[in-house]
Amino acid sequence: MKQKIEAEAENLLITNYEKYYRLAYSYVKNEQDALDIVQESAYRAIKELDKVRERSFLSTWIYRIVIHTAIDFLRNRKRIEVSLLDVEAPHEDQYREDDPLELLTVLEEKDRTIVMLKYLEEWKLEEIAEVMDMNVSTVKSRLYRALKKLKIALEP
Prior knowledge:
By secondary structure, the chain is an all-alpha fold. The protein folds into 2 domains: about 1-90, Rna Polymerase Sigma Factor, Chain: A (Orthogonal Bundle), CATH 1.10.1740.10; about 95-155, Winged helix-like DNA-binding domain superfamily/Winged helix DNA-binding domain (Arc Repressor Mutant, subunit A, Orthogonal Bundle). It is built from 7 helices and no strands. Helix 2 (about 15-30) packs across helix 3, helix 2 runs parallel beside helix 4 (about 60-85) and helix 4 (about 60-85) packs across helix 6.
């Protein structure tokens, strides 16, 4: 049983690598950081594989690890930036101001994740609810509230 779940996890990590990368990149907006997040997420998934209770939850569980790893990365980066008093120059490969994904920064982390999974990854609301550990109705209300915020932000 353990070997089967390890093989399935390895297969998911390999086949969904680009999806994990896009999700991480949408958080950090930096190629190298996104690659680091995916690598760290894969390490965490393999290390904590014994915590998966059911094989059917494996894919959702890995996505959740990627999301949490990206959020952890952002929190750590924010602490470092505050401690350096923003002396550091911005990264060269960050999004430009006219990038539509930059608009998502006006949203809270959970709302941003919901919008990204819904519209960038084209997930169903039920799948998002499962990954985010929320009710479908909560996901719907957060999504519509986030879209309303984005609409307000887009108005001149």
